[in-house]
Design brief:
The protein has 263 residues and is of the alpha+beta class. Helices cover 18% and strands 37% of the residues. The chain has a six-stranded antiparallel sheet, with no helix packed on it.
């Protein structure tokens, strides 16, 4: 593993007994860690970009590119197993390096961190279960009519959110609930409405809010762990308390302004 070009220690603000974390910097092209190494730390990106790669068929393939605010390497702390992939700096990066003891204290002081990770793990388990079911169907029926292992495309519902500036439309899912957020290619978490294309400031959390369809009525609720606010017609929502959403209402998630429309 390449040595960081800089290392220092500091206290995480906001804790009763501030845990100590290590700030490290890596030059472009250097590895934060490599696949197969034992992992004792996780990382949060403060500046720059990091690519996650994995070797397959003798080649190193890119799985995702992470940016400021993203974290990676947490599975090594949770599982105490070798790294499942490699992390390499695409440009000069500044990272927060967190060891096991600091990680435990952060979870105690900031339960929202645990909520985010639990959601990621839950999503991974659901996807793995679905893939196993598909493989079983493949075995039972043969290869001629095997369904795709990728998530099925959701049919567009007539209800939609319209981005105020660009005019882009984001249809709701046909189910009773529609998640709004930002995609996470590392864990495979993709919300029903991915606002990444219109969120240049990355102000929206991966699971930011949810629209509930209850009969002929609609409600908007902010998810636990959301970093920036959610509002309807300028009124900020309380986390976990859905508010009724009517046609024509102005919705703001982070800095992204949207309008709720019905056909």
């Amino acid at each position: 593993m390449s040595n960081p070009v800089f290392k220092s220690t500091a206290a995480v603000p906001g804790a009763k007994k501030p845990p100590v974390y290590t700030a490290v910097e890596h030059s472009a092209g250097s590895y934060v860690f490599r696949e197969g190494e034992l992992g004792r730390e996780m990382f949060i990106i403060q500046e720059g970009q990091v690519e996650i790669t994995k070797r397959a068929a003798g080649e190193e393939r890119q799985l995702a590119v992470l940016e400021k605010g993203d974290f990676f390497g947490e599975m090594a702390l949770l599982e105490d197993l070798p790294r499942a992939g490699s992390a390499r700096a695409l440009v000069h990066v500044k990272l927060v390096q967190i060891n096991g003891s600091t990680f435990d204290q952060m979870l105690r002081d900031n339960p929202e961190i645990a909520v985010r990770m639990m959601r990621k793990l839950s999503r991974r388990l659901r996807e793995t279960d679905q893939q196993l079911r598909d493989l079983m169907d493949q075995t039972n029926r043969g290869f001629s009519d095997v369904p795709s292992l990728q998530a099925p495309r959701r049919g567009d519902a007539p209800e939609r959110l319209v981005h105020e500036t660009s005019g882009m439309e984001f249809p709701l899912s046909r189910g009773s609930e529609t998640t709004i957020g930002r995609k996470d290619p590392v864990t495979g978490i993709y919300p029903d409405i991915d606002l990444t294309p219109v969120d240049s400031q990355r102000s929206i959390s991966r699971r930011h809010a949810k629209i509930y369809r209850r009969g002929a009525k609609y409600f908007l609720g902010e998810e636990i762990g959301t970093m920036n606010s959610t509002s309807i017609n300028g009124t900020r929502l309380d986390t976990g308390v859905p508010a009724e959403l009517r046609p024509g209402d102005q919705v703001r998630c982070g800095v992204v302004a949207l309008r709720f429309e019905l056909p």
